[in-house]
């Protein structure tokens, strides 16, 4: 059975993502540190962060809830990763990325472990 035409339109809908000045500053700082030592790794890390944040366009609730209506998106990269702090304004369908921080360790919980 085929979906209704409105189903396709609804699935194409994406939230707008805006980076705060702080988030841009965080990206600059994250790129500056490893670029001198390992330029390819720095570019790859920024690409991974960008890809993770792009996911918020279609899935703004994917991050875990944290304080005062904010959410955290865990972005895995190698043995560590990054945390993007953001808010989602449902009325405006807007994701505001507030900060991006490195994680020293990423913890994964396994069911039954």
Uncertain stretches of 5 or more adjacent residues:
5-10, 108-113
Helix content: 25-40%
Q: Let me know the largest β-sheet.
A: 5 strands, mixed
Query: What is the residue-averaged pLDDT?
Result: 82
**How many DSSP H or I helices?**
3
Structural class: alpha+beta
Strand order of the largest sheet: 1-5-4-3-2
> What proportion strand?
25-35%
Shape: elongated
- CATH fold type: YaeB-like fold
CATH homologous superfamily placement: RelE-like
| Domain module tally | 1
Radius of gyration: 16 Å
| Topology pattern, helix = H, strand = E | HEHHEEEE
Q: How many strand segments?
A: 5
- Termini separation (Å)? 41 Å
**What is the annotated CATH architecture?**
2-Layer Sandwich
CATH class: Alpha Beta
Task: Explain what this protein looks like in three dimensions.
There is one protein chain. The chain has a single domain, classed as YaeB-like fold (2-Layer Sandwich). A hairpin with a 2-residue loop joins β3 (71-77) and β4 (80-89). It has 113 residues and is an alpha+beta fold. Mean pLDDT is 82; it is low at 5-10 and 108-113. The protein contains three helices and five strands. Helices cover 40% and strands 29% of the residues.
């Amino acid at each position: 059975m085929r979906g209704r035409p409105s189903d396709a339109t609804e699935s194409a809908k994406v939230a707008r993502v805006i980076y705060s000045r702080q988030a841009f500053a965080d990206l600059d700082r994250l790129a500056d540190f490893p670029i001198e030592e390992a330029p390819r790794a720095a570019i790859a890390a920024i690409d991974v962060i960008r890809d993770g944040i792009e996911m918020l366009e279609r899935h703004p609730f994917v991050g875990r809830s944290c304080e005062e209506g904010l959410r955290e998106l865990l972005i895995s990269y190698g043995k560590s990763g990054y945390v993007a702090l953001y808010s989602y304004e449902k009325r405006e369908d807007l994701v505001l990325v507030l900060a991006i921080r490195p994680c020293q360790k990423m913890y994964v919980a396994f069911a039954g472990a």
